[in-house]
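# nightly structure sweep
# worker-07 picked up a monomer target from the shared queue
# config: single-sequence mode, recycle default, output format = structure tokens
# input follows
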Amino acid sequence: MKFIISLILITFALNLNSFAQQSNKHFCGSDIYHEQLFKENPGLKEQIQIENLTRDLTPYRIQKRESVRVIPVVFHIIHQGGAENISDADIQGVLKRINEDFRKLNPDTSEIRQIFKARTTDMNIEFRLAKIDPYGKCTNGIQRIYSTLTENARDNVKNLKDENTNPIAWDNLKYLNVYVVKSIYNYSGVGVILGYSYYPQIALSDPKKDGIVIRADVTNYNGRTLTHELGHYFGLPHTFQDGCGSDCKTTGDLICDTPPVLEDTYGCDKTKNSCNSDVPDEPDMAENHMDYTNCRVMFTKGQKEVVDYYLNSQYRNNLFKSSNLTATGTDNATNISCKPVANFELKYYAYCSGSPVTFTDKSLGPDNMQYKWYLPGSTNEVFIGKNPSVTYYFGGKYNVKLVVKSASGSDSMVKDNYIFVYPETGEDVTFEEKFEESSFKSNYWFIEPAQSNIQWKKTSAAAFEGKQSFLLNNFANATEREYSFITPPLNLKQVNAPYLLFNYAHARKDDASKDMLRIYVSTDCGVNWSLRDITNHIKLPTAANFVANQFIPQAEDWKYKFVDISNYQGKENVLIKIALYGNGGNNFYLDNLKIYSSVAIKEVSENQNSVHLYPNPANNLLNVDFASDNYDEATISINDINGKTLKQIKVKTNYGNNHIAIDLSDISNNGLYFLVINNSTGIQRKPFNLIRQ
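# output follows
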């Protein structure tokens, strides 16, 4: 017996080494995580091997099981607000997939080769989302937890706590815990782990480690990773476990109706026969769920015997007991006794005054729950019903409270300053924010909530002018996403040719940095946004070199950003959203944000492309090429950013193209200026920079 166990342990390690050599492969991490576990608990490895060799499967071989075992499931979605925060629909999709696979209802069983058709079986297992949590509260079986541990996740995610400081892991003897993450840490350092699970023995020896960890991008109906990991959860090894052998009771995966397989297999080669030691000699079972092929569609009767053994063992037998199904709300009872949980949401972050605001109830509880809403400032301040639709006629921020009641209890939720209502008319332009005060002058600034502690904040670390600027601490960002803030609403009705202007500073960490700056405009209180300007990762950096540590700009690192928003001239309620798309770059600083009218005139030509300025930046001389509709006289002005005219000349123009050189030596300060041409073509303007060393 000792020789057999030693041989198994050696081949297990050899298989793991071969497994890890697939540096470009996506695979299951169960072998790797078991090896790590066995380093911490050496005796557990031998305990599992002895049980696998000595277990008596006879009762499950002769038993004809007709009843379906129901397993209560809870999905813990660990996320940072990115794509890993998969939808409820994805969860329903993957639940449908595993139920089809474990009940042999998947239509692709038709692809099983004739030699293996008689071996396939219905595992008689059904998975249902829990409806009652460990605290007696109603649940939908889906829990969402915001945490940076979603990246390179491992067993540490199982120790997280929810917003009420309760452990997110639910009793492993009552629930199957599935932890959905963005990526999984790989101890081998090669390849990509899609998921992993420990064998059933862990349920008692180390219950905090029990459960399945799986990547979010394979948790949907099209993915079969969860089917595979559930096999491990119920005690099934890989079909290629320990490679080839002649005795199926002591070698390989220890299951006699799955032919031995030398190593993990990718693709779908149904002609492959990697082992010739089995009698009779059979091809590899590429169709089996416990390999890595892309044609996995079946479990065997022998695998079911192993699963039945562990389901009826002390490790898993409580899961499908009728008392546990009642306790977890998975017994299909019509009336479930659980404490209701109040919750609600809105479709948009803000609304225009006078527009309808409809709340969507997300509470959990019986269908006959009672609802009472408290909506101060609205047209219906106390509302009885499920999904109220009300109106707020005055700008401001408003609290919302919901109380739900059922026969099993009551619950309430309060969200302070939850309703953000913009006033009917925005703030007058000229608008300016220098970020020098501790609070904003307007109550209508919207700063996107922090994601992984990354958020736009005022800082004294650097400034273009004064002592403070607006910083996005992008250096620590590990997620590709936008981080934004929104200005108060602006009234551009009486503004001619408005523009946005600010100073900024940014650096790249390395050549892989791909940050971008995007500027959006909305005229319907943020319901719809139009992309007005984008600065890519090549043009965005202001620092001359890569900065590997925290970027703090020096005086020479600041630049101007000018955005023409004259298309929105005449609008009374305009929002501007400034967003940095973080993708591996460094910190971003912004200062002296201004919205101005560049010219005090009634009409501005939109044909700005007919004016060309060079060089730009200029030094002492600015060349101007422009067009004229006829022989005429043009007035050419140089204005500063406040609209003050610093220089003005009149020139005779020719029909067609014209050229003039303007002396700038009498303008002393570096900065952003505007050239304005007023002639028969219309009024045209172009920004340029004046920079002298």
